[in-house]
Amino acid sequence: MTTGSCSDQDVSRNDGVDPHGGATIPTYLQLAAELADRCRDLPGGTRLPSENELAAANGVSRITARAALQELEQRHVVRRQRGSGTFVANRIPYVVRAGMPPSWTAIVATAGHEPAHRLLSVETVRAPAAVARALLLPRGRSVVRAVRLGLVDGVVASHQVSHLPTAIVPDLARHLERGSLTKLLIEHYGLQPDRWWSRAEMATVPAEVGVELEVSGRPMAWRIESVNVCRRRGVPVEVTTGWMRADQFEVALEFGPTDGANEIATMDGGRE
After folding, report:
1. 4, 57, 88, 256 - which has most CB atoms within 10 Å?
2. Is 130 helix (H, G, I), strand (E, B) or coil?
3. What is the average pLDDT across 191-213?
4. What's 135's domain CATH number?
């Protein structure tokens, strides 16, 4: 990176010249590109230098260093944690596919991380109209509403609200502590939950959810809605609305047969 004076203008100064004669590159973007290259070789969770340390090491102002880190945060290359610093993001692949067991815990564990849960509340409430329709319940029927946080390696990563028919999960409040809800439904209640319908989108985090997720402001996050059915009984058993931090998860949607990706790879490999 071309270095210059450490003035506040570094953030917008065009020091980098495109070798092909195109537009010049602002200093903070040059620094962000260098940091992104370094992050590729670092394990997720590695703490990066502070703004002051980056500024001193690269001969730029603190404002430029901050702008570079903010750029990488927007790209989800790093995550910034209030009071702790900036860390290399370790985004977990999260595939949303119909017919797939909806276990957040299993997905995190399979990726080599330590999943955990924090129960915020569990109560019996009257089912909202949309929930009653999804669960095929008469209007006004009661359901269990559970609100939980999901933690990855000790860091809050998701917020989930689940609604389940009270008739099929008696005493859920007594059994639902820190473990996997999907595992509890399978092992204790004898259900076989599968994802039947899902909707995933990037959306602005509600203020109250942002506080629980321990993020600054109201960033964009993955909002995933699902209706899960019991494969054995053929009836809906759970409606969920979850928020997952985009710096912790990389969501992918899959359609068609589960071996479709392999078939495409085979086809591509056969092209001349």
Report:
1. 88
2. helix
3. 93
4. 3.40.1410.10
Arithmetic mean of pLDDT, 196-203: 92
Give residue-wise pLDDT tens across range 61-80: 999 999 999 999 888 888 88
For residue 241, what is the enclosing H or E element?
A: strand 235-245
Q: Are residues 118 and 83 in the same domain?
A: no
- Contacts of residue 53, defined as CB under 8 A and 6 or more positions apart, other chains included, come to none
Q: Output the six-digit token pair for 172.
A: 């859920």
Lowest-confidence segment of 6-10, 86-90, 188-192 by average pLDDT: 6-10
Res 21: pLDDT: 56
Q: Which domain holds residue 130?
A: 92-257
Same-domain check for residues 48 and 172: no
- Do 130 and 72 sit in the same domain of this protein? no
Distance CA 11, CA 31 (A): 10
Helices and strands (H and E) in the chain: how many: 9, 10
Q: Domain ends where: 88, 105, 128?
A: 88
pTM, whole model, 2 decimals?
A: 0.73
List CB contacts of 47: < 8 A, sequence separation 6 or more: 85, 86, 87
**Residue 98 pLDDT class (50, 70, 90 cuts):** confident
d(CA 180, CA 271): 44
Angle at which helix 27-40 crosses helix 62-74, to 10 degrees, equals 60
The answer to whether residue 22 scores a pLDDT higher than 80 is: no
* 59 and 121 in a common domain: no
8 A C-beta contact, residue 105 and residue 115: yes
